[in-house]
Amino acid sequence: MMLRAGLIVVFSAIFCCAATASVRIKDITSLQDVRDNQLVGYGLVVGLQGSGDTLRNSTFTEQTMQSMLDRMGINVRSFALRTRNVAAVLVTADLPPFIQPGTRMDVTVSSLGDATSLYGGTLILTSLTGVDGQTYAIAQGQVAVAGFAVQGQAETITQNVATAGRIANGALVEREAPGHLRDIGPLALVLKNPDFNTAVQIAEVINKFSMRRFRLRVAQDRDLNSVALVRPPGISTARFMAEIGDLMVDPDAPARVVIDARSGTIVIGQDVQISTVAVTHGNLNVRIVETPEVSQPAPFSNGRTVVVPRTEIDTNQQGGHIGIVKGASLRELVAGLNRIGLKPMGVIAILQAIKSAGALHADIVIQ
Q1: Phi, psi dihedrals of residue 157, rounded to the nearest 5°
Q2: Residue 179 — left, alpha, or beta (φ > 0 → left; ψ -120 to 50 → alpha)?
Q3: Which among 194, 225, 249 is the end of a domain?
Q4: Structural contact between residues 39 and 137, judged by C-beta atoms closer than 8 angstroms
Q5: Residues 59 and 168 in one domain
Q6: Contact, 172 vs 99, CB < 8 A?
Q7: Which domain holds residue 196?
Q8: Is residue 254 a contact partner of residue 191, using CB atoms and an 8 Å limit?
Q9: What is this structure's pTM?
Q10: Which residue, of 206, 222, 249, is where some domain finishes?
Q11: For residue 13, with 0-12 CB atoms within 10 Å meaning exposed, 13-18 middle and 19 or more buried, which class applies?
């Protein structure tokens, strides 16, 4: 058995970018009060190959199946159902804004009972309702599952999640969500990544365009989250948003380091800087070997055969290299960390230590 004390990690990747690229305004903002509406429904998935709910454990599945068969004119109330080909599921979907009846959209199907897999199942007609209790879509179709679960007498193999899947274009919109584009009050762009500098840039770019196009200023930066707009006369809201949506800006972002300790992934923002620091890195290896021996008593000694534990412990501490790291830019920072020869968790631990020392000028986000 090996125990490692110190900095241990499997380094997945360090992502960086050379420079901030220009992006369209519509890619980093959204129109205020224009959003998706979440829908949910309860239904049955049938056609499973013995991987459905156990009806005695999932009584709601049995009750739902009996009610469905009753509506079809089949009375099974007095029979004990034993099928394992049916599973109770929750169906969820996002209703896009201003979507028209007759449009199709994707839905997600998730098992509610003790089913082991939804592979090969078909969702039966299910109503999807909103928070107001109204039915906005009807879902039905073949469930596509990305994972699988195979079980034998002594071993089980599972990949991804077999109890959840999607139905592409599986829902048919029956009712339009309340509200129209023309009913929206004062127009405003909401930033997906709030930042004062980005909001100011968006307002300046829009005003520069509107002065040429409409001979007036139509944008005003309100705060780090939003930019207020005034629709010029003689143009519809849809055309106005289409024209300003294609304008290009250079979004700014705070210096940030994102760490995923589970996978060893580190994402370092372009503006992250480190003051001059000296860093050392070393590992302590502890090796424990168990070699039990059998103690056999002499003949006619009335003794017992016992197992005698024998343990060997060996320690080895590798020499740690000390290096000077100074990150005036992202490129120099990554090069300095690579020169020390760090492995993934070592980079994570050292970045946290440098932040504690006050030399890392960025926010650390740990996921």
Answers
A1: -120, 125
A2: left
A3: 249
A4: yes
A5: yes
A6: no
A7: 186-249
A8: no
A9: 0.67
A10: 249
A11: exposed
Long-range contacts from 299-302, C-beta under 8 angstroms, 24+ separation = none
Taking the chain (367 residues) in runs of 10, the rounded mean pLDDT of each run is: 37 42 88 89 92 84 86 79 88 91 94 90 94 94 82 68 91 87 84 90 94 92 91 89 91 81 76 72 58 74 74 59 55 65 72 78 79
The DSSP letter of residue 117 is -
Distance between CA atoms of residues 322 and 340, nearest Å: 7
- Distance, CA of 352 to CA of 360 (rounded, Å): 9
With beta carbons less than 8 A apart as the criterion, state whether 63 and 78 touch.
no
From CA 231, how far away is CA 56, in angstroms rounded? 61
- And the tokens for 117? 């897999």
Q: What confidence score (pLDDT) does residue 101 get?
A: 92
With respect to residue 121, please indicate whether it lies within any of the assigned structural domains: yes
Coil, strand, or helix at residue 105?
A: strand
Amino acid present at 151: Q
Residue 4's pLDDT is what? Answer: 40
Residue among 43, 62, 66 nearest 53 (CA): 62
The label of the residue with tokens 């939804």 reads: 118
Same domain, 357 and 268: yes
Tens of pLDDT along 281-332?
665 455 656 677 877 777 766 777 777 777 666 655 555 555 555 555 556 6
The pLDDT of residue 8 is 33
Determine the pLDDT at residue 2: 40
Q: Which residues of 302-327 are buried (b: 16+ CB within 10 A; e: fewer)?
A: eeeeeeeeeeeeeeeeeeeeebebeb
178 found inside a domain: no
Give me the number of domains the chain comprises.
3
Sole residue written with tokens 């519809």: 236
